[in-house]
Amino acid sequence: MMHLFINSLAASAGGGLTYIRNVLPHFATQPDLLVTVALQSSLRKEFCNLSNIELLEPRVSQARRLWYEQSALPPLIRRSQADVLLSSGNFALRNSPVPQVLLSRNSLYTSADFFRNLRSRHEYRTWLDTHVRAVLAKRSIRWADITVAPSEAFAAELRQWTGARILAIHHGFDREAFIGDSSPLASEVEQKLRAADGSLKLLFVSHYNYYRNFETLIRALPILRVQLGGRSVKLLLTCSLLAGKNPGAYRCESAAALVKKLGVSDSVIELGAIPYSQLHLVYRRADLYVSPAYAETFAHPLVEAMASGLPVIASDFIP
Questions:
Q1: Distances (CA, A) of 131 to 88, 102, 295
Q2: pLDDT for 96-131, tens place per residue?
Q3: In whole angstroms, what is the distance from residue 148 CA to residue 262 CA?
Q4: CATH (residue range 2-168)
């Protein structure tokens, strides 16, 4: 029996968390595979019933995570007697006690657009933090035995950036598992969706951040209304544009101010965070999926939207 140790402490939101949500249930069905996963304690309820999966929940803040991974994880891996380490959060262990596979999927470290965006917003602290993390991510590719990217386009970008061998393995998608939960949406969410009936409903699944380019989508709303002859258009967001309501250090005040400035408050419906198991119910209620993101590697919502039968309009975010 092979014993796989997965470091997913970085999985708190976005694609990294979606990846873990998709892959762990499949690992649990493999009789010859034992998996130990280091993850945040807030995720225990999602995975505690999976067989062959041992959960480790170290109490460590995101600010101390990188230090913890480099200093405390190697002894834990040795004691677990794991055969292989999968580091799923862009950063590898410098001295892994077992062969290490690194999943690198953060395109921000190589995105000139993102750094320009941060400067234009005067987000110099985030600009510096991203540069530091980019150095660590680049070194991590050297520390790992093999690095895996979720698309051939991003693998090529990483090869150019580092000169290292990068293997492209596309993320899979289990449609039956994705649509398996039939429990109803929260009443507040249901009311907001019903209020949008009769309108052209555009859906964008993401917490607020800069690289998903929310402002461009908001600016498009009055243009769409004119081009559609005044037809009602509703933009459904799975987040809130209120300060403190989104993960990370991204400040959504500018997006909220833009909504008011353009007079499209009645067109933007903030559903708030939707449990992943119920997202398919929201896709089914929309008419189009839209994504103006300028930096992506593997956009899970595009696959989810297509699996739900939604037409997709997306920016060209190939690196």
A1: 20, 20, 16
A2: 999 999 999 999 999 999 999 999 999 999 999 999
A3: 43
A4: 3.40.50.2000
